[in-house]
Amino acid sequence: MRLRIAHSTMYLYEPAASGVIQILRMTPGSHDGQYVANWQIDVSSDTRLDMQLDAFGNITHVLTLGAVEELIIRVEGMIETHNTGGVLKGTDERFPPSLFLRTTDLTLVNPEMSAFAQTLRDEAENDTLGFLHGLLVQLNEHMTFDPKPTSSTTAASEAFALRRGVCQDYAHIFIACARSAGIPARFVSGHFLRADGKVDQDAGHAWAEAFVPKLGWVGFDATNGICTTDAHVRVAIGLDYLGAAPVRGTRYGGGRETLEVAIKVDQAGRQTQS
Fold first, then answer.
1. I need a surface site. Which of 43, 85, 175, 193 has the fewest CB within 10 A?
2. Predicted model pTM
């Protein structure tokens, strides 16, 4: 598929911030099943964008600004995708899979999650892929999508207890349960083409990748209960959301900060609805 993506992030500072530093992980890379045909970043203020690769191989841009009242970051481009059955190939892997057994504050398991994962592990016996598919299905059934009770700082254990959350929470829970079963897993931020024709979204998408012997890394989208397809555009990876967040940084001075995000994900040639 050919997917058109437009992502706008706007910050308002009242009064003006005296300085802003942001790290952008908003640029996808090419690999088997995903080719970046064109992509560009525009910033409302006159600033230099320094591009580099982070430790995980994500494409990052660093922007630094002085006094600013409004900051708008726009990215857009065209991505060609092909369905690989969820199996990831052709990526720049800088660490052994075992690194992704490392827990973080956002992906710690509690006793309930550990028991949940162990039951699925026992049912799958020694079948790693079978366990992961079982986890995908059961987690999708356990959770209800609801943006109200959680935030970007909500831990997997909190969302699991609430049985509610957004795609970030689904991914964190999946990762935590997989790691508790001894399976390397990592967080992925990106975009998703909705099947219902709706192109306007108020946030990006997130899912998990787990390492399966003889297959390699495989994408699992617990929010939708599926392995990743050509409807997914992979942008960045990390141990959790904090390592793959589209925009992350700090500001100096100023008062109230307001954030607005608008995203469009559309298939070229598809009739859509807003």
1. 85
2. 0.95
What one-letter code names the amino acid at 204? G
Whether 268 and 199 have beta carbons less than 8 Å apart is answered as no
Q: What angle do CA 127, 132, 134 make, to 5 degrees?
A: 95
- Averages of pLDDT over each 10 residues, the chain, 274 residues: 96 91 96 96 88 95 91 96 95 96 97 95 93 97 95 95 97 98 97 92 95 97 97 98 94 86 90 52
CB 194 within 8 Å of CB 267: no
Q: In the beta sheet, which residues pair with residue 258? A: 12
Torsion, Cα of 134, 139, 145, 146 (10° steps):
-170
CA distances 270 to 60, 202, 220, 236, Å, are 31, 20, 25, 26
What is the token pair recorded at 90? Answer: 């052709």
